[in-house]
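User: Please predict the structure of the protein below. I'd like the answer in structure-token form so I can feed it into my own downstream comparison script.

Assistant: Understood. Taking the following sequence of 173 residues as input:
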Amino acid sequence: MTVSLDEIREMIGARISGSKPRQKIQKWAEERMNAGARQELAYEPVTEAERIWEALVFMANSQHQEGSRSFIEFRDKNNLRISTIRISLEDVRTALNALISGEKSRDEIDRWACGLMAADDRRELEYLPSQDEDRIWKGILSLSGVDTRVGPDGPYLYGTEDFITWRDELGLS
């Protein structure tokens, strides 16, 4: 098994953006640490082995960290900022389906979408494939407001029917 510095950057970026849950990242890191313990792990580049291992340990122990803030601090302290976050229609479909099924909260989906919007502002967002950029962006914009309420204590502005309509309009049914 091989682990690269780019993979580390991608996993940290995915946690910060919210596109991967902490548990998946933790499991990914633990699998690589177990391979390392069996001396079945290769580092790419090999000159960054110590830095990669430190990041794996951090990610494997992420249950002790609150939210993505600690990941941001770790990323910045260790100069692991990624140049791009990749987003696809499948990511938007997954977010919509998680919202519709109740698997993820409105707040989680909103934070994820807002994180992607911030990445786009920093020119760190890559649309895959690029010809789907308009549809992906429309999905991100829609999802960025899913926790909006009508008034301070009012009902949500958008409901499950709206989410299903957005999914259908984007051709993601």
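That's the full token string. Helices lie at 5-17, 22-37, 49-60, 69-77, 89-101, 106-121, 133-143, 160-169.
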